[in-house]
Structure formats: structure tokens, C-alpha cells
């Protein structure tokens, strides 16, 4: 098979990327809903929930390999024409997700106070952080199941179903959070519990959809130990890659926490917006994972080259567009979350810096998706560690000087939004300069 014509290739990318964009945006919308509802309770509530969210996202984020390892495995098998093998890979990924989710839920619930203390939280901020973590742990198994199930569908070149499920989950999440936080007076804990319930609803829908398909492919529902271990082996490298990213985020939050509640609150708002935009940019990366995995499984090297070049350009262009949007809305976005003028001003500066970094972010997310789709997990892990070693000294420099409010948030986002992402762009671009990362066949 030769590479598709440019127009046909563009349609293939968009057919996966546009629904993926909707589904990916729905995920940070869960966080945005929490922050918007909690933000009007007070600065301490917002700062505590922000800290709790960082810890929760770190734990769940390390498990992102459940989607990232399942997608290319299913896509490769599908590309080679072996649907039974594709569904078996999905089954084993889901089984691993449930097991890991139960372990993380127990550890997170009982370890919440120590985790909040380790992040530097004190007083009321500490209490709200613990509440958010503990009530969120009820939904961790469901969150991981959703990751694995979404990976299966992406590998099957289906990004529309996750869009519909995520949309239903988001609508339920808003309603649950509002009722639990205000009419029932559960404060920060209510927002976390509402999200947990919504995640379980999504997980059950995915099981209802996928179990019959697995049976239809003549696969037993009993997971294969070798399949689970294989997913875990690939996932270990991807986990190390994700760990390096999460350590960078934790270190950033730690620096923000040291600058006071105002800086932490504003940083959390900017980071929430970053997460929203990152998931939007990641829509192209999801398309890359699915398409690259399928074409490599089918042995189409030419199509892989064309996909990589095209989507890299698209990533940069989309980054320019999202950056322009952020620059326009920066003066107004803080008012959506808080009435505090100081937090609004600091948020505005952080969002402007984030806007300037968006083209770099676009390239990073696309190339990351290409290499994940190719199963190049080992390189991604090593590159992540190198990038972390470059970034940490930037944060050390920031802590050497006294900053407050606008100044602190500004320097933190110069280091993260520009410095850290540029380092990632360099390591990923260097990898795709030749064909060393390509492995053809199922």
C-alpha cells in the first residue's frame, strides 16, 4: 500500500482527531467543573482542591499506559487482520486496569494525609486537600478502566464512542458536583465524590459495549497472564516516561506552594487551562497512535512517513491557533473561577505565557503520539528522564529569588511552558529524524 493522497490522508486524520478532541476535552472539563464550583467557596478550598487534584492526577496519570499501550497493540493486530488478537489485547488491558485501580484506591485513601503534608499543605488547605483525595479514591478503579477501554476503541479506529460516553459523563458530573457541594453542603468532598460517581457510570457503559465484542471474536473473558504481563512490560517504560512528566508537574506545584496560597491558587487555574489545551492538542496525537500503529502492523512504511510529516505540521499550526485564542481570553478567564483580583491578575500573566508556548506544545504532543503508536516506549522513557534533568535546575533558580503573586506565577510558567516543553520538543524531534523507531509487522 502506498501513502494516501494528501486530501485522503487529511480526512483519515480528521475522522479520528475530531471525535478524539471532543472526548479529550471532556476529561479536563471534569476538572474545570470542579474548580469552577469549588473556586467560589474560597481561596483555601481552591488551593486544597488544586493540591489534591495534582496528587490524584499524578497517580492516575502514571497509569495512562493502560490506554497508550493498548491502543497500538490493538491497532497493530487490526492492521495485520487478526481481530481475535486485537480483542484479547483489549481484554488483558482492562483486567490490568481493574487490578491496579483497586490497589491505588486503597493506598490513596489511607495515605491522603501524608501525601498532602509531603506537598507542603498546612492548616485549612491541608484539610481540603485530604478531603478531595479520599473522596476521589472511590472512582480510581473506574478511571483506570475507562483509560483501558478507551485505548481499545482507539486501536479499533473508533474515537466517536469515547466522545459520546465522555459527554454523558461530563453532564452527570456537573449535576452531581453542584448538588453535592451546595444543596447538600459537602464542600470540596462533594466535588470529588460527584466525579467518582460519574467515572463509574462511564466505566459500566464501556463494559456493556466491549464485553459482547470480545465474546463475538471467540475470546474468553478470562484474562491471559502472558497478555497482562506483556501489557505491563510495555507499560513499565511508558510509566517511567509518564513518571518523569509527573515529577516535573509535582516539582512545579511544590515551588508554587512555597510561594503562598495566592500563587498556588493562580498556578492551579493556569495549569487547569494548560490541561484543557493539552488535551485539545493531544487529539492529533491520538490519531497518530491509532493510524501509525495500524500502518506499521500492515507493513506500510511509506504511509508512516507521510503521516508523521503531515501531523507534525498540523500540530504546529494548531498550536498557533490555540495560542491566539488563549492570548485573547487571558484577561477574562480568571473571572470564571474566582472573585479575587490578585488571583485574576496572576492567572492572566500565566495564560499569556502559556499562549506563547502553544506551537511548541502542538509539536510535542504529535511527536509523542507518533512514537507511542510505534511502540517506542523505551526511548520515550529515556528522553523523559533527560528532559526532567534539564528542567529541575530551572525551578531551583526560581526558588533562589523571592517572588509573589504575578511575578511568581510568571516565572514558573516561563520555566514550564517554554523551557520544559522546548526540551521535550528537541528530544522527540531528534528521534524521528530517521527510521530507527519504526518496527513493521504485527
UniProtKB/TrEMBL annotation:
<dbReference type="InterPro" id="IPR002528">
    <property type="entry name" value="MATE_fam"/>
</dbReference>
<feature type="transmembrane region" description="Helical">
    <location>
        <begin position="55"/>
        <end position="75"/>
    </location>
</feature>
<protein>
    <submittedName>
        <fullName>MATE family efflux transporter</fullName>
    </submittedName>
</protein>
<feature type="transmembrane region" description="Helical">
    <location>
        <begin position="349"/>
        <end position="367"/>
    </location>
</feature>
<dbReference type="InterPro" id="IPR048279">
    <property type="entry name" value="MdtK-like"/>
</dbReference>
<feature type="transmembrane region" description="Helical">
    <location>
        <begin position="12"/>
        <end position="43"/>
    </location>
</feature>
<feature type="transmembrane region" description="Helical">
    <location>
        <begin position="163"/>
        <end position="182"/>
    </location>
</feature>
<feature type="transmembrane region" description="Helical">
    <location>
        <begin position="188"/>
        <end position="211"/>
    </location>
</feature>
<keyword id="KW-1003">Cell membrane</keyword>
<comment type="similarity">
    <text>Belongs to the multi antimicrobial extrusion (MATE) (TC 2.A.66.1) family.</text>
</comment>
<dbReference type="InterPro" id="IPR044644">
    <property type="entry name" value="DinF-like"/>
</dbReference>
<feature type="transmembrane region" description="Helical">
    <location>
        <begin position="379"/>
        <end position="398"/>
    </location>
</feature>
<feature type="transmembrane region" description="Helical">
    <location>
        <begin position="243"/>
        <end position="262"/>
    </location>
</feature>
<keyword id="KW-0812">Transmembrane</keyword>
<feature type="transmembrane region" description="Helical">
    <location>
        <begin position="268"/>
        <end position="293"/>
    </location>
</feature>
<keyword id="KW-0472">Membrane</keyword>
<feature type="transmembrane region" description="Helical">
    <location>
        <begin position="132"/>
        <end position="156"/>
    </location>
</feature>
<keyword id="KW-0813">Transport</keyword>
<keyword id="KW-1133">Transmembrane helix</keyword>
<feature type="transmembrane region" description="Helical">
    <location>
        <begin position="314"/>
        <end position="337"/>
    </location>
</feature>
<feature type="transmembrane region" description="Helical">
    <location>
        <begin position="96"/>
        <end position="120"/>
    </location>
</feature>
<dbReference type="Pfam" id="PF01554">
    <property type="entry name" value="MatE"/>
</dbReference>
<feature type="transmembrane region" description="Helical">
    <location>
        <begin position="410"/>
        <end position="430"/>
    </location>
</feature>
Amino acid at each position: 500500500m502506498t501513502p494516501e493522497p494528501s486530501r485522503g490522508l487529511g480526512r483519515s486524520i480528521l475522522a479520528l482527531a475530531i471525535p478524539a478532541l471532543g472526548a479529550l476535552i471532556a476529561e479536563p472539563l471534569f476538572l474545570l467543573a470542579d474548580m469552577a464550583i469549588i473556586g467560589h467557596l474560597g481561596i483555601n478550598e481552591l488551593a486544597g482542591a488544586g493540591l489534591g487534584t495534582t496528587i490524584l492526577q499524578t497517580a492516575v496519570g502514571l497509569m495512562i499506559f493502560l490506554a497508550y499501550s493498548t491502543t497500538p497493540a490493538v491497532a497493530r493486530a487490526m492492521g495485520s487482520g487478526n481481530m481475535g488478537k486485537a480483542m484479547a489485547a483489549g481484554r488483558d488491558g482492562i483486567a490490568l486496569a481493574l487490578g491496579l485501580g483497586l490497589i491505588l484506591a486503597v493506598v490513596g485513601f489511607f495515605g491522603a494525609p501524608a501525601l498532602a503534608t509531603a506537598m507542603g499543605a498546612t492548616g485549612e488547605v491541608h484539610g481540603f486537600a485530604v478531603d478531595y483525595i479520599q473522596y476521589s479514591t472511590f472512582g480510581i478503579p473506574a478511571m483506570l478502566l475507562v483509560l483501558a477501554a478507551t485505548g481499545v476503541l482507539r486501536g479499533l479506529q473508533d474515537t466517536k464512542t469515547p466522545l459520546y460516553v465522555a459527554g454523558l459523563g461530563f453532564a452527570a458530573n456537573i449535576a452531581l458536583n453542584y448538588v453535592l457541594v451546595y444543596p447538600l453542603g459537602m464542600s470540596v468532598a462533594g466535588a470529588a465524590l460527584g466525579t467518582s460517581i460519574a467515572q463509574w457510570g462511564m466505566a459500566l457503559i464501556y463494559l456493556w459495549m466491549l464485553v459482547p465484542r470480545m465474546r463475538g471474536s471467540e475470546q474468553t473473558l478470562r484474562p491471559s497472564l502472558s497478555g497482562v504481563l506483556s501489557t505491563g512490560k510495555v507499560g513499565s517504560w511508558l510509566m517511567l516516561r509518564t513518571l518523569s512528566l509527573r515529577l516535573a508537574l509535582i516539582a512545579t506545584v511544590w515551588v508554587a506552594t512555597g510561594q503562598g496560597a495566592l500563587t498556588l491558587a493562580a498556578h492551579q487555574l493556569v495549569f487547569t487551562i494548560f490541561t484543557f489545551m493539552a488535551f485539545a492538542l493531544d487529539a492529533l496525537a491520538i490519531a497518530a497512535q491509532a493510524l501509525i500503529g495500524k500502518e506499521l502492523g500492515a507493513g506500510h512504511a511509506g504511509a508512516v512517513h507521510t503521516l508523521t510529516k503531515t501531523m507534525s505540521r498540523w500540530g504546529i499550526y494548531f498550536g498557533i491557533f490555540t495560542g491566539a485564542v488563549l492570548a485573547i481570553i487571558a484577561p477574562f478567564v480568571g473571572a470564571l473561577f474566582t472573585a479575587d483580583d490578585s488571583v485574576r491578575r496572576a492567572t492572566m500573566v500565566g495564560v499569556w505565557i502559556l499562549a506563547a508556548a502553544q506551537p511548541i506544545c502542538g509539536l510535542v504532543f504529535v511527536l509523542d503520539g507518533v512514537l507511542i503508536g510505534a511502540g517506542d516506549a523505551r526511548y520515550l522513557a529515556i528522553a523523559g528522564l533527560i528532559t526532567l534533568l534539564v528542567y529541575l535546575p530551572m525551578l531551583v533558580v526560581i526558588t533562589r529569588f523571592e517572588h509573589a503573586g504575578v511575578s511568581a506565577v510568571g516565572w514558573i510558567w516561563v520555566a514550564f511552558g517554554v523551557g520544559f516543553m522546548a526540551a521535550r520538543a528537541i528530544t522527540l524531534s531528534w528521534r524521528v529524524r530517521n527510521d530507527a523507531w519504526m518496527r513493521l509487522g504485527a
